[in-house]
Automatic annotation (TrEMBL):
SUPFAM superfamilies: Acyl-CoA N-acyltransferases (Nat). This is N-acetyltransferase domain-containing protein. It comes from the Bacteria. InterPro entries: Acyl_CoA_acyltransferase (IPR016181), GNAT_dom (IPR000182). One of its GO terms (molecular function) is acyltransferase activity, transferring groups other than amino-acyl groups. Residues 21-179 form the N-acetyltransferase domain. It comes from Aliidiomarina sanyensis.
Length: 179
């Protein structure tokens, strides 16, 4: 499966003769696209380089699959949290994805966002942020942690109302906002 694999058949049947555009809940057919996007992001320094280790990759692949099929994702603390993946399409081509988790009631994390290189600077990241904002209940808090090399994402999050938290990581920037 290629990173820019053309849209074929989706479970809801909408793939028959339809050129899909917009954000849709991820399905099992999207796993390789999501996994490959995360791997590329790790190579580019946008995600942890630990994700490049084969043993970690097996766990990541399972975590993506579990999240898509059950709506829950295991955490490093050993518990399961609600988890959602959405995939962006442009004329049937996968262009981006985002991964959102709910750590506890009304505390969400925008866990990962990746836009295919050939689709960057086209407003897809902003449309993802609008989509996230529309799905989180009013009064909730959403947080994001970025590697320092994610300067474009940092600018988008700040423009969307995120502010830097007091606690910061050595290699990451911690942001949050209340909706």
């Amino acid at each position: 499966m290629g990173n820019k694999e053309k849209f074929e058949e989706r479970v809801d049947g909408s793939g028959f003769g339809v050129s899909k555009t917009g954000l849709y809940p991820a399905e099992l057919a999207d796993i390789d696209f999501i996994f490959d996007s995360i791997q590329r992001g790790a190579h580019e320094g946008y995600f942890s380089s630990d994700l490049l280790f084969p043993i970690i990759q097996l766990g990541l692949h399972k975590q993506i699959s579990d999240s898509i099929t059950t709506g829950y994702s295991p955490t490093h603390r050993g518990c399961q949290v609600p988890s959602w993946f959405y995939v962006s399409f442009d004329a049937g081509e996968r262009t981006a994805f985002y991964w959102l988790t709910e750590e506890k009631t009304n505390l969400f994390e925008l866990y990962k966002v990746a836009v295919e290189p050939s689709f960057r600077n086209m407003g897809i990241g902003k449309s993802i942020l609008r989509h996230v904002n529309d799905r989180i209940p009013s009064g909730s808090k959403i947080k994001a942690r970025l590697y320092r090399s994610s300067t474009i994402m940092l600018k988008m999050l700040v423009a969307d109302g995120f502010t830097r938290d007091l606690k910061q990581g050595k290699t990451t920037i911690h942001l949050s906002k209340r909706l």
